[in-house]
Every structure is written in C-alpha cells, then in structure tokens.
Design a protein that fits this description.
The complex is a heterodimer of chains A (about 575) and B (about 80).
Chain A: H1 4-12, E1 22-28, H2 33-45, E2 50-54, H3 60-65, H4 70-74, E3 78-82, H5 85-94, H6 97-100, H7 103-116, E4 124-128, H8 149-166, E5 170-173, H9 175-182, H10 184-187, H11 190-196, H12 205-219, E6 226-229, H13 240-247, H14 257-273, E7 276-282, H15 285-294, E8 307-311, H16 315-326, E9 333-336, H17 340-349, H18 365-372, H19 387-401, H20 407-414, E10 416-421, H21 428-437, H22 450-458, E11 462-471, E12 474-488, E13 491-499, H23 508-522, E14 527-532, H24 544-547, E15 551-552, E16 559-564, E17 575-578
Parallel strand pairs in A: 1-2, 1-3, 3-4, 4-5, 6-7, 6-9, 7-8, 10-17, 13-14
Antiparallel strand pairs in A: 10-11, 11-12, 12-13, 14-16, 15-16
Helix pairs in contact in A: 1-2, 2-12, 7-8, 21-22
Chain B: H1 3-18, H2 39-53, H3 59-64, H4 68-77
Helix pairs in contact in B: 1-2
Classes of the chains: A alpha/beta (about 575), B mainly alpha (about 80).
Chain lengths: ~575, ~80
C-alpha cells in the first residue's frame, strides 16, 4: 500500500491520459479534502484518469437533492457518498429515545431516494457503509436494544446491503469491512478528528481510497478474472517431487497443513464465484497431479483447474501459454507463488500481471490476501460458475487444433452452431455482464447496465442481437452482442459490437456480419456504418471493419467505416444458425 | 533532547512533507512564512512529527500552536 505522502505526490503529477477520464463526485459529511487527494493519487497508481469533483464540506443533502447543485451540474458518472458514523452517532444522541430507533431507516430511505432520483439516472452511486463505533452504552447487551447505536449501525449496514441488491445503480463500498481488517484505532485518530473534522487517519486514507477505486475500477471493467497458482509450498506444504504424497503438509489438525487447507478453501470459493483457477508449476505433470487425484485432504481437485501447466518450462512461458488459451489480458491475472525469485521473474517479463508479495509464513497467506481485496467485482451471475468448465473445454480444443493442418478443416470438425436472438428477460443479465466485462473485442466500449439493455430491447429504432456458440466440446453460452441504431431511413449505425475473446478465430465475426447484413436487408436499410473508438485495450479490433470489407467513411472525425447492403456476398464460415 | 537537535529533525520533516529543498525554522516561524504549509499539510506535519518522535499530541496542542517555537515546547514537555 502506498503512503498518503506518496499518493499526494502522485496526485500532483496527474498526467494527460489517452482515455477519457472517469468523472467522479465526492460528497461527505466530514472533511474530505485529503480523501480526495488520496483518490487522485490512487487513480494515478492504477493508470486511471480521474476528473474529480469535491463537494463543499457537509452538503450531502443539498448537493444530492437540489437539481441545480454543483454536483448535478458537474454530471459525474460515479457519485461517492461518504457519511460518517460520527455524524450518525451525533444525530442519534440528539434524538429522543423513541426516535433513536429510526436513525438507520431514515438514512436508508435517503440513499434510496438518491438512487431513484430521475435527475441522477445513469449515474452510479457508491455509498460508503458505516464502520462501527462501540459506544459501550449497553455493552454486549446493545444488540437486545433496537434503539442502541450499535443496533442502529448494524441495521443500517445490513439494510444498505439489501438495498444494493434492489437498486442496480447502488454499490456499497465496505468501509466497515476495512475497519474490521485494520482496527478502529488505526482507522481513526481522535486528535486529528478534533482539530480537523476528519474521521479517517492519514494512515487509513490510502486503504479507503484503494477500496473506493476498486469499486469504480470493477464498474468500468477493470477486475481480476484469473488466479494462477504455483503448487509446492503455495497450495500444499513441502515439495511433492521430493517429499512424496505422504510427505506433503495438508489437512486439519496441528501444524502448517491447516494453513494450506484453508488457503485451498478460499481458492475454491473464488473458483465457484467464477474466477478461473490455473496451475503453473515446475514439476513433472503426473507428479504434480497426484495430490489432486489421490490426497484425501486436497480441497482443490483437477476439475477446479481450468488450465494445468506442470512441466520444466519457465513460469513466464507457462503463464503465457495459459494466457493464449484463456485469451484474457495479463492485467486481469493474479499469480501466487511462495518463491520470491519466481515472482520477480514473472513481474519482470509480464508487465501487467499482479504478483502479490506473499508473506514468508504460509500461516499469513490468507490474512495478507484478504487485505489486498484483489477480486472486487461489480456483477455476479450464476453462469459465472460454469466458466472453469468452458476453459477446460477450450484447452481440449487447442489440443485438437494442433492435430489439423488446415484451419478450415479444424473449424469444420468442431460442428459449431449459434443461436441468434434479441435481448430477452432471460439473457439480459448476461448481455449486461458482457457489456461490462469485454475490453478487448469491443469496438466502442459502451457500457450497458441491465436496465439499459431492457430499454434497448424495447426501442423500435434499435436492432438488438445476441449470439451463442456451441460445438462438439460444449456450450460457450452467450458470447457476442450487437446493438444497431437506425440513424436515418437508409442507414444503420453499429452502436455496439463486442465479443468474448474465448471464441476468437472461429469465424464468429463473419457469422455475426452475415447476420447483421441479413437483418439490415430485412429492415430495408441500404448502408451499415461501424465505428472504432480506441481505448487502452481494444487495439485488436482496430482493423476489424476493414478486415471485414468495410470501407472508410471520408471526412469522418472518428474511425468510421461503411458497408453497402446491396452486393454483399455472405462470408464463408463454419457456423450453422440454430433456432432459439 | 536539545532544542537545536529537535529543530534539525523538524527541518528534515518539513522538507520531506512539504516537498521543500531546504527550510530554516526558528521559534517565530509560522504557517504564513511557508507557502506550502496550509491547514491540510499541517495535519501531515503533525502525524509525521508524532511518528518521528514516537509521541502523540493532544487535540488542544494541535490547535493552539501559533509558531514552531510552541511546537518545540510541546515536544520538550513530552521529554523527547
């Protein structure tokens, strides 16, 4: 973690970025200037450009409720609301006993009003929850007294959590969890509070800023998708090649084996959540797999591992192989290895990958990893849990492909089919998720929420298409999305074309274009216009339209391309359309 | 600790926190004399001094100092 002083220096060097800055508003009921500085500095450390609006001190209500306020005028994409437990406690103290019971609900109602304010539509509300202050008025009995401060703070945090499930524009930033980790005496400095109205200590600021930027990052598509594990002394204690199946340390009971078992349980939960778990180990493959197959105390099994690379190549080569199979950015990968030499080598050769500095004592692995909050996310769907299987299948495909000399023969042998549908109640969550997650194969990187997708589906001027892909190995699920808008009687504009990178090089682009042209023809449209908007991540599709036979639109300010519907010959591809 | 020695350490802390190449502090130096010393960097100074000397200031101390001399008085009163 950077120190506040470092963040302040970095904040001064905010540089011009090639990508559009994130517009963030910060509004709080205590002094937030230093938090704003910490946010700016943290954004720089993550290569994120930030355009930050700081509301005047203690204007939460006015700034949010008054449509003419500076906050409304600024038009932030993300609104960070930081209300303190201190101010809550103050309000609680001033109320007659009978009304103390309503303090939590009153705040929840306020946040709900903000979430439903039509003036703030399209903005994401990031609401800090409330670190507890144990005022010891009732001691441990406080829970039995609904009006106690402890009961009210806990109720408030719980109800905020519930509200965030109901309102798709509300995201809670879990300061209470952070205080659990760091301790109240670290989070809060009474002498600084008294002299400045700041409720966060200088030492806590970088942590708080980090948690806020985690949420904003996840919302704009920056999050970890994959965890790559070393094996010896990372997943179990000891060296399988030397110590043998009986000699490695694993399992409950006394001793360090417990630490590895609990570490595996954590990895398993991540896997179940949708994180792709892979192995990169310097070992003979059969030896490395033996504990997974035969050790009674292994929590992780081979079917939890999407790609298993155990050989005598370097970790760098193995991680690159994993990347080529998964087709996700290195910046969405985390590599865990107990060996500092291997960690440095990976960091040196693969710039964007995250390589945590695991503590020397395996007993400390988990608490250290918890503190990093590596796997922040802005969405979760049950389909996420199938992801590991899909990548295992992909690894099989890669094997099969090596046995064909011609790419066409290989593609033909896959027996691919695709279901093309508009956006429906059933596929909306997945479409929204793809829109949030896709960075590389994404022509314009327009992010849509579920509510947006529902609106698009109902809009008669929009042609909405979703594509699935199946083959003989399995079902990739919904992997591509197209949104087209009719901009005049004869022209369709491709507002969104995105695709999951795990189906690259299957001819899906050609199949998608054939579908697009067919729909355009049915709609009586003569011309299709596509646009490429560059981001830090979507270089792979820079030449997408020219490759597909579009020609540049002369005189356009951005990279726009057009295709005439008349005379279009459907591209050859090996994918059959399947009825929904 | 001698006042002179405390001053030497304080000058290092001021340079570090306020990003100054050099600074010369006297009993009479106050926030008006150093451009970078504002109410926000003051908090950073306080916390850095606390850490460097291993002490805690009271809230009253933090608010009442009018110049560096009084800061040094507070430090000396804590037997640094």
């Amino acid at each position: 973690m950077h120190t506040f002083k470092e963040l302040k220096k970095l904040a001064r060097n905010e540089s011009e970025s090639s990508t559009a800055p994130l517009r963030v508003a910060l509004v709080g009921d205590t002094a937030t200037q230093l938090l704003a500085t910490a946010l700016r500095g943290t954004a720089v450390t993550r290569g994120m450009a930030l355009d930050l609006f700081e509301a005047e001190y203690n204007q939460v209500e006015r700034q949010l409720m008054d449509p003419t306020s500076e906050l409304h005028t600024f038009g932030a994409d993300y609104i960070v609301i930081f209300q303190s437990t201190h101010k809550l406690a103050e309000r609680h103290a001033l109320l007659p006993a009978a009304q103390q019971e309503c303090v939590a609900d009153e705040r929840v109602t306020f946040i709900d009003t903000v979430c439903r304010d039509p003036q703030l539509e399209g903005r994401r509300i990031i609401c800090m929850n409330y670190p507890e202050i144990d005022d010891a008025v009732f001691g441990s009995y406080a829970g039995q007294v609904p009006s106690s401060l402890t009961s009210q703070v806990r109720r408030l945090n719980y109800r905020l959590m519930e509200l965030s499930r109901e309102r798709d524009n509300l995201f809670v930033c879990d300061l209470a969890a952070l205080q659990n980790k760091l301790g109240r005496d670290m989070m809060f400095a009474p002498n600084i509070y008294v002299s400045t109205e700041m409720v966060l200590s200088l030492d806590a600021l970088p942590w708080v800023a980090s948690r806020v930027m985690d949420v904003i990052g996840a919302l704009c598509g920056r999050f970890k998708k994959c965890l790559i594990l070393d094996l010896d002394n990372t997943v179990w204690g000891g060296v399988i090649g030397d110590d043998g199946l009986e000699g490695i340390q694993l399992g409950h009971g006394l001793g360090i084996g417990k630490a590895f078992t609990e570490f595996q349980m954590w990895v398993k939960k991540l896997r179940q959540r949708g994180i792709i778990v892979c192995v990169a180990s310097k070992n003979t493959e059969s030896v490395a797999k033996e504990p997974f197959e035969r050790h009674p105390d292994m929590v992780l099994h081979l079917d939890d591992i999407a790609v298993f690379q155990a050989n005598w190549e370097t970790k760098v080569d193995n991680i690159r192989t994993i990347q080529s199979i998964l087709n996700i950015g290195f910046d969405s990968m985390v590599f865990l290895d107990d060996n500092p030499f291997e960690r440095n080598m990976v960091r040196e050769h693969i710039a964007d990958i995250t390589v945590p500095e695991l503590p020397a004592d395996p007993g400390n692995y988990l608490e250290y990893l918890y503190g990093l909050n590596l796997f922040e996310t802005a969405a979760y769907s049950s389909a996420d849990t199938d992801r590991t299987r899909q990548y295992q299948v992909e690894a099989q495909r890669v094997k099969l492909q090596r046995s064909f000399t011609s790419e066409g023969d290989f593609l033909q042998s896959l027996g691919m089919t695709s279901t093309v549908e508009g956006f429906t109640r059933f596929n909306t969550p997945r479409v929204a998720q793809l829109s949030q997650r896709s960075n590389q194969f994404n022509l314009r990187t327009v992010r849509y929420t579920e509510a947006d997708i529902t609106e698009l589906a109902a809009n008669p001027a929009v042609i909405d298409l979703s594509f699935t892909l199946q083959d003989k190995f399995g079902d990739n699920g919904l992997i591509a999305v197209v949104v087209m808008r009719r901009i005049d009687a004869g022209t369709l504009f491709i507002d969104t074309w995105l695709m999951s990178c795990r189906v690259l090089k299957r001819g899906m682009e050609d199949f998608t274009l054939n579908t697009i042209v067919e729909r355009a023809r049915q709609a009586g449209v003569k011309r299709i216009v596509g646009e490429y908007l560059p981001t830090a991540k979507n270089m792979m599709v820079e030449q997408h339209y020219p490759h597909l036979g579009f020609t540049p639109v002369a005189g356009a300010a951005t990279a726009q391309y057009e295709l005439l519907v008349d005379g279009y010959e459907p591209h050859l591809c090996h994918i059959q359309a399947k009825q929904p | 600790m001698e006042r002179k020695e405390i001053y030497k350490q304080l000058e290092e802390i001021f340079c570090d926190v306020l990003d100054l190449d050099e600074v010369s502090l006297t009993d009479a130096t106050c926030a008006d004399d150093i451009e970078e010393w504002d109410s926000l960097s003051h908090i950073q100074l306080v916390v850095s001094i606390e850490k460097a000397f291993g002490i805690k200031f009271t809230s009253q101390e933090i608010m009442k100092w009018k110049n560096v001399g009084e800061m040094v008085d507070s430090l000396q009163a804590k037997n640094v």
